[in-house]
Amino acid sequence: MNNPEVVMIGLGYIGLPTAALIAEGGTQVHGVDINQNVVDTINRGEIHIVEPSLDKSVSNAVSKGFLKAATTPVEANTYLIVVPTPFKDKNEPDISFVQAATTAILPLLKEDDLYIIESTSPIGTTEKMMTYIYEERPDLDGKLHIAYCPERVLPGNVMYELVHNDRVIGGIDEGSTEKAVAFYAKYVKGELHKTNARTAEMCKLVENSSRDVQIAFANELSLICDKADINVWELINLANKHPRVNILQPGCGVGGHCIAVDPYFIVADYPMESKIIGTAREVNNYKSFWCAEKVQNTKLQFELQHGKKPKIALMGLAFKPDIDDLRESPAKYIVQRVLQNSNNEEYYIVEPNIKEHNVFKLTNYESAFKKADIVVFLVAHKEFKTLPKTSDKVVLDFCGNFK
């Protein structure tokens, strides 16, 4: 592939779908990932993640020669940084991957190029990278277009939402914003909202922190209702009949690469000001711990009543229904915690969206349900909704599967 138009650094859950979308539009895309296996898989026209219709898009783009993957970048006109931003100790964001990706393209940058960060980042990251680039390449000072445009897609519906969702685009100056807007306008049908880089960075963090706070309210209600002997699902359903009330559904915590993570970007930088945001994180983390404790207590109760150890089905590992993504998954945390406290009970671990796991031995969901004395619903996968309600099992339903 000669001189691609776009270099996409990071070919994960966001980078690969975005690269495929751009390439399907007839633009030459050079995708970069540090994992050779990922690169080889994509170059065969295959995918390494589960996402509806992504396989067709990648296969199509690769076969037509518009998408190629490699472990190193090449010269282009537009560079998109879509790498992870993990955490160091005490939930402090680590932007070293963003910096490493930027370092990799430093020698390739030329006047009038467009550099966009999509990775979730602390406020000020885009300006930091601008300073870094211009320090290393003073010949380009003021001659690049630098912008931030966060993704806001839902796993399981990424290919649709990449096209149809509105985007917030913030440049380091007006020219950068305009150039980035012109780039996204070629592929996105949603509205493109212009702002500055700092506001765009904050916008991403605020969207997910808002969801986290709302989920924390629902999870806190579930803890109160458990003590008060009230069905939380019925309660929320009734409360939501009020025209101005819209309480979300509780679960066994909050997971994924966004809602469970992004609030920490704010809390780390503004600890004294972000009291509600910080407390919401604590509530949602505690809910997972509480669910694990509940399984432990139910198990001991069963032994006392029946004089034997129960067989326990742990239903779901993903961070939300009907996907294969286990990142920051509260269900996975609960399973790990329950197994740490195991004492020769028989466990059946279920996750219908993955074939195998390198730590857990997986069991078919129907078989696990049938054999188990205690069934623990951790994720409301569509398969689980087909299971019969039965009175001969102890059911712990943390996600409203049987609500």
UniProtKB/TrEMBL annotation:
Pfam families: UDPG_MGDP_dh, UDPG_MGDP_dh_C, UDPG_MGDP_dh_N. GO terms for molecular function: NAD binding; oxidoreductase activity, acting on the CH-CH group of donors, NAD or NADP as acceptor; UDP-N-acetyl-D-mannosamine dehydrogenase activity. Residues 313-403 form the UDP-glucose/GDP-mannose dehydrogenase C-terminal domain. The keyword Hydrolase does not apply. Keywords: NAD, Oxidoreductase. It comes from the Bacteria. GO terms for biological process: polysaccharide biosynthetic process. SUPFAM superfamilies: 6-phosphogluconate dehydrogenase C-terminal domain-like, NAD(P)-binding Rossmann-fold domains, UDP-glucose/GDP-mannose dehydrogenase C-terminal domain. InterPro entries: 6-PGluconate_DH-like_C_sf, NAD(P)-bd_dom_sf, UDP-Glc/GDP-Man, UDP-Glc/GDP-Man_DH_C, UDP-Glc/GDP-Man_DH_C_sf, UDP-Glc/GDP-Man_DH_dimer, UDP-Glc/GDP-Man_DH_N, UDP_ManNAc/GlcNAc_DH. Its EC number is 1.1.1.336. Belongs to the UDP-glucose/GDP-mannose dehydrogenase family. PANTHER family: UDP-N-ACETYL-D-MANNOSAMINE DEHYDROGENASE (PTHR43491:SF1). This is UDP-N-acetyl-D-mannosamine dehydrogenase. It comes from Arenibacter algicola.
